[in-house]
């Protein structure tokens, strides 16, 4: 069988699936490599850059040696992510020599060039034109209009059966531990009709699951005053309903817990969108939330969670948390553990607080020692794992739908409606998987459960 996933303890919350490249270059075609780091939002940026380059006649190389230049799309979310980005830039310079840097860390060009002065150019996040200009200078385009035909859906870095759908850029929040608004700016929503049109193209091309992403999905359309244009209103509830009418699975990520989120729950109960909410709660103690500059409403959040589950009993709730935030006391951390006991979240990720250059939290007093952070992380994940194990054990004996991600000689790796790609668990089918292919949606009887994964038997038609 495929290995059991190690989600979520081994994963940072800012990581996206590794990009996949497969299309070979034609003789004489200019080639560009791409290293895409960071979150799914950055992965979408990489797809947009590569789509533009493919339209101009460039081929995409899956390795350094086959590329005439390499673009590194960086992450700057945490200091560890910045270090990873610098390491990736260094590797690209060693292996290829001609490197263009973009993405969130590109907002700090001196930080990059101070370590890697040989980079050809540095651009900030979603600065597509500047990236293209840098590529044109490094590797002049040589399009062949009779050969270089671009699919209507553009270049995708994920498997063909699912796709990320970015609905906005930026964020209006000022959380003290986060510098994303400084790098990506304030909220800028895409028109709803443009989002729906892109989704229609994706579904027509065979995408079976749309993963809706932004920095703050709940706030979608606020900057547009929720205007309606071309028959589509820029509001997350209306957008979710429109996307749900396309026939694909629709999964909502990064949903800030505003009161109007409760209006999404009936759509989940009706089956229009998946019964899945990814909500970054970050902590539960009101004083910690206040120091984070986040709404201190943990008690009311428990009431909201209870109401969501009342109206949609099958809902899966995922969240991420920070332990060891500056000033966090043992009592405050215990409040978080007690809250988690009561909330019984289905999917939980956690990371230990670390300073990020430019974040206001760096200046807070009473930073927590690293050893204490690590110990609290271990205690938190132990409780989260126990909750996950019990939740999954309760699914044994149920009949559910799953989507197939991969098939090999040992079996099929699938996901339930409660599992997002890469960050959540899997369901494995190790019998009667002949004929299955990625993107198939099949019915299974769950017959075994682990800490984060399930196993099941395919329900065969006529059986």
Automatic annotation (TrEMBL):
One of its GO terms (biological process) is tRNA modification. InterPro entries: Elp3/MiaA/NifB-like_rSAM (IPR006638), Methylthiotransferase (IPR005839), Methylthiotransferase_N (IPR013848), Methylthiotransferase_N_sf (IPR038135), NA-bd_OB-fold (IPR012340), Ribosomal_uS12_MeSTrfase_RimO (IPR005840), rSAM (IPR007197), rSAM_horseshoe (IPR023404). It comes from the Bacteria. Signal peptide: none annotated. GO terms for cellular component: cytosol; ribosome. Binds 2 [4Fe-4S] clusters. One cluster is coordinated with 3 cysteines and an exchangeable S-adenosyl-L-methionine. [4Fe-4S] cluster 2 binds at residues 171, 175, 178. SUPFAM superfamilies: Radical SAM enzymes. Residues 157-390 form the Radical SAM core domain. GO terms for molecular function: 4 iron, 4 sulfur cluster binding; aspartic acid methylthiotransferase activity; metal ion binding; protein methylthiotransferase activity. Its EC number is 2.8.4.4. It is an enzyme of class 2 (transferase). Residues 1-32 are annotated as: Disordered. Its cofactor is [4Fe-4S] cluster. Its main location: cytoplasm. It is found in: Cytoplasm. Residues 30-140 form the MTTase N-terminal domain. Keywords: 4Fe-4S, Cytoplasm, Iron, Iron-sulfur, Metal-binding, Ribonucleoprotein, Ribosomal protein, S-adenosyl-L-methionine, Transferase. PANTHER family: RIBOSOMAL PROTEIN S12 METHYLTHIOTRANSFERASE RIMO, RIBOSOMAL PROTEIN US12 METHYLTHIOTRANSFERASE RIMO. Catalyzes the methylthiolation of an aspartic acid residue of ribosomal protein uS12. Belongs to the methylthiotransferase family. RimO subfamily. This is Ribosomal protein uS12 methylthiotransferase RimO. It comes from Gemmobacter megaterium.
């Amino acid at each position: 069988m495929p290995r059991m996933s190690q989600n979520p303890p081994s994963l940072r919350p800012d990581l996206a699936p590794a990009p996949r490249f497969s299309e070979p270059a034609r003789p004489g075609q200019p080639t560009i490599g791409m290293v895409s780091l960071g979150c799914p939002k950055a992965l979408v940026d990489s797809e947009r850059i590569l789509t533009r380059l493919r339209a101009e006649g460039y081929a995409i190389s899956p390795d350094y040696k086959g590329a005439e230049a390499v673009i590194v799309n960086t992450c700057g979310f945490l200091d560890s992510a910045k270090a990873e980005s610098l390491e990736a830039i260094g590797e690209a310079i060693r292996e290829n020599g001609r490197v263009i840097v973009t993405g969130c860390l590109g907002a700090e060009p001196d930080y990059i060039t101070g370590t890697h002065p040989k980079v050809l150019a540095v651009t900030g996040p979603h600065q597509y034109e500047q990236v293209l200009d840098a590529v044109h200078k490094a590797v002049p385009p040589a399009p062949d209009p009779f050969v270089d035909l671009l699919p209507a859906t553009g270049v995708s870095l994920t498997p063909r059966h699912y796709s990320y759908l970015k609905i906005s850029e930026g964020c209006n929040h000022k959380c003290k531990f986060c510098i994303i608004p400084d790098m990506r700016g304030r909220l800028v929503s895409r028109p709803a009709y443009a989002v729906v049109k892109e989704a229609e193209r994706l579904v027509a091309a065979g995408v079976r699951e749309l993963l809706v992403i932004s920095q703050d999905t709940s706030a979608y359309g606020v900057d547009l005053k929720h205007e309606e244009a071309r028959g589509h209103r820029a509001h997350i509830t209306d957008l979710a309903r429109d996307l749900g009418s396309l026939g694909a699975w629709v999964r909502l990520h990064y949903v800030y817990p505003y009161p109007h989120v409760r209006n999404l729950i009936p759509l989940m109960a009706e089956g229009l969108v998946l019964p899945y909410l990814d909500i970054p709660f970050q902590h539960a103690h009101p004083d910690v939330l206040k120091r984070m500059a986040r709404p201190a409403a943990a008690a009311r959040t428990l009431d909201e969670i209870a109401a969501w589950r009342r109206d949609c009993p099958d809902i899966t709730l995922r969240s991420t948390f920070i332990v060891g935030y500056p000033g966090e006391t043992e009592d405050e951390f215990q409040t978080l553990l007690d809250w988690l006991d009561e909330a019984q979240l289905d999917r939980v990720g956690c990371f230990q607080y670390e300073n990020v250059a430019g974040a206001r939290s760096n200046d807070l007093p009473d930073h927590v020692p690293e050893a204490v952070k690590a110990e609290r992380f271990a205690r938190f994940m132990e409780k989260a794992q126990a909750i996950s194990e019990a939740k999954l054990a309760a699914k044994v004996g149920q009949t559910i739908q799953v989507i197939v991600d991969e098939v090999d000689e040992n079996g099929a790796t699938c996901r339930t409606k409660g599992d997002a790609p890469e960050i959540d668990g899997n369901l494995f089918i190790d019998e009667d998987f002949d004929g299955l292919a990625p993107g198939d949606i099949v019915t299974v009887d769950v017959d075994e459960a682990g800490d984060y994964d399930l196993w099941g038997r395919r329900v065969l038609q006529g059986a």
